[in-house]
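R.M. (postdoc): so does anyone remember the format we settled on? I'll just put the structure tokens first.
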């Protein structure tokens, strides 16, 4: 890991969490930034970075050359490696097309949330009707409006997800315009 830190010091530009994860092995192990950001107290931040780099250098100095080379070799050998999660029939793998995959599973999964959404819509309609009758006596209920907005967003999200899964995202965006 130490050779990896020294190797990356001058080669990458990363966001703060990634940089902290490299220097301190996890982003949580990194020292807290001073109030207002690192630019408020650059001396303290540079001191903390110096301590981390010197610690990594000390770990490297403890390693002999063959061990260091072995670490570096293992790092490069792991690049591009992956683990397959499930075996696929070779004939299906070669001749796979989108239409070959069953869509019934997706429809079954989608039917349960759709029923829930329909029930919620019906409940909201009933609440709206009752609130219209009582509107002359009471101000409109803000939580009801929030529920309606939340439901609209959820329905829009479900439509977008369904369109994306069926490959109709571009047509849906064209219709929205």
């Amino acid at each position: 890991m130490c050779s990896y830190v020294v190797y990356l010091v001058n080669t990458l530009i990363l966001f703060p969490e990634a940089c902290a994860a490299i220097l301190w092995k996890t982003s949580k192990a990194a020292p807290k930034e001073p109030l207002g950001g690192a630019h408020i107290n650059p001396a303290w931040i540079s001191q903390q970075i110096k301590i981390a780099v010197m610690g990594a250098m000390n770990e490297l100095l403890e390693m002999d050359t063959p061990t260091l080379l072995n670490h570096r070799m293992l790092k490069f050998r792991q690049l591009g490696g992956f683990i397959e999660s499930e075996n696929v029939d070779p004939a299906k793998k070669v001749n796979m097309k989108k239409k070959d995959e069953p869509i019934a599973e997706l429809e079954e999964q989608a039917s349960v949330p759709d029923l829930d959404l329909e029930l919620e819509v019906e409940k909201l309609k009933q609440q709206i009707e009752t609130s219209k009758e009582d509107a002359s006596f009471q101000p409109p209920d803000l939580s009801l409006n929030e529920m309606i907005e939340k439901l609209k967003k959820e329905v829009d999200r479900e439509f977008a997800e369904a369109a994306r899964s069926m490959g109709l995202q571009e047509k849906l965006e064209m219709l929205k315009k």
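R.M.: ...and that's the designed sequence above, right after the tokens. Also worth knowing: The mean pLDDT is 73. The chain is about 65% helix and 0% strand.
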